[in-house]
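Quick review question:
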């Protein structure tokens, strides 16, 4: 099969198209012929070596965290899926690699593709959908009547999280640029802040939850929009001790993450608020629930551009400009 590999950790490094053997299939795996994948900022971060401490991939490795495709073979212990099933998934950490023609995925990470989506649309969902679900449903347990502030509403996570928060009954505020105001309003945002002309701290206050995906400065300012007892969930860091414990990291890494997050945790405690770092995990059952919402019309995908497989490097570069609305897709096969 063909795949794009990262030869070494490198800022803005080029991906190389190589021939590789077909992935080996374990008992609980399905082999998927990849028809579409998507690019996420996480791919750039892994290529650049930003997560080497917690995700020590050894080059050469294949990037890619989203997949939509067809099951072509199943492992001996697989019971839920069969050859010919159209699926979508976010493969678990250390088993990523969707910038390729085939991938072996644990059955537990896989769900049937939403029937009303194309392969390209379905590939836009898994990572951002699971991130939003695990933040809003699992961690924050958002309830009707609460107020949720979502940073970067036109991003991949933002476009999904706005729709999910509205479905959960929340009032939703978000930030975006002038050209994307209509987009985020169409997704359900009640309060839209143009970050180029407005300071969100001066527009919103008394919120129950902030979902942060931006830099440290924005993270710090986000405390100003929360009410006492409010919760700040960040998907961009810094990782906290709870994350280190959950991942089973060694004592040295636990200490590093304790120090990295000490400032934000102390501020949260002083203000009577809660801080959590979220690094989403693969979860096929949650993708099944998300598929039901998509099929019922509650959530729709937002796709910016579709690149051919041979232009995977260009797709990654486009995402790195920060101008993409929703998700950028790579069409791997028909």
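Suggested answer, residue by residue:
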């Amino acid at each position: 099969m063909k795949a794009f590999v990262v030869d070494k950790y490198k800022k803005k490094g080029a991906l190389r198209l190589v021939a590789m053997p077909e992935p080996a299939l374990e008992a609980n795996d399905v082999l998927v012929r990849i028809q579409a994948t998507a690019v996420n900022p996480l791919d750039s971060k892994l290529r650049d070596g930003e997560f080497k401490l917690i995700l020590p991939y050894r080059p050469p490795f294949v990037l890619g965290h989203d997949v939509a495709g067809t099951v072509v073979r199943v492992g001996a212990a697989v019971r839920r899926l069969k050859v010919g099933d159209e699926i979508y998934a976010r493969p678990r950490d250390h088993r990523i690699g969707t910038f390729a023609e085939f991938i072996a995925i644990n059955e537990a990470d896989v769900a049937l593709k939403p029937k009303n989506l194309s392969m390209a649309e379905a590939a836009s969902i898994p990572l951002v959908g699971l991130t939003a679900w695990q933040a809003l449903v699992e961690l924050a347990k958002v309830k009707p009547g609460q107020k949720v502030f979502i940073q970067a509403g036109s991003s991949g996570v933002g476009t999904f999280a706005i729709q999910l928060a509205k479905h959960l009954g929340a009032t939703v505020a978000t930030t975006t640029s002038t050209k994307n105001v209509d987009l985020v309003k169409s997704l359900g945002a009640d309060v839209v802040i143009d970050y180029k002309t407005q300071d969100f701290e001066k527009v919103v206050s008394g919120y129950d939850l902030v979902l942060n995906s931006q830099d440290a400065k924005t993270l710090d300012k986000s405390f100003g929009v929360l009410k006492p007892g409010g919760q700040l969930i960040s998907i961009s860091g810094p990782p906290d001790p709870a994350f280190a414990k959950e991942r089973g990291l060694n004592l040295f890494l636990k200490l590093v993450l304790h120090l990295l997050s000490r400032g934000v945790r102390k501020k949260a405690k002083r203000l009577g608020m809660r801080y959590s770092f979220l690094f989403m995990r693969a979860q096929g059952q949650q993708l099944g629930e998300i598929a039901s919402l998509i099929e019922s019309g509650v959530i729709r995908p937002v796709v910016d551009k579709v690149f051919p497989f041979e232009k995977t490097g260009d797709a990654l570069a486009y995402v790195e400009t920060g101008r993409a609305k929703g998700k950028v897709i790579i069409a791997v096969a028909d």
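Why it works: The mean pLDDT is 96. DSSP finds twelve helices and 16 strands in the chain.
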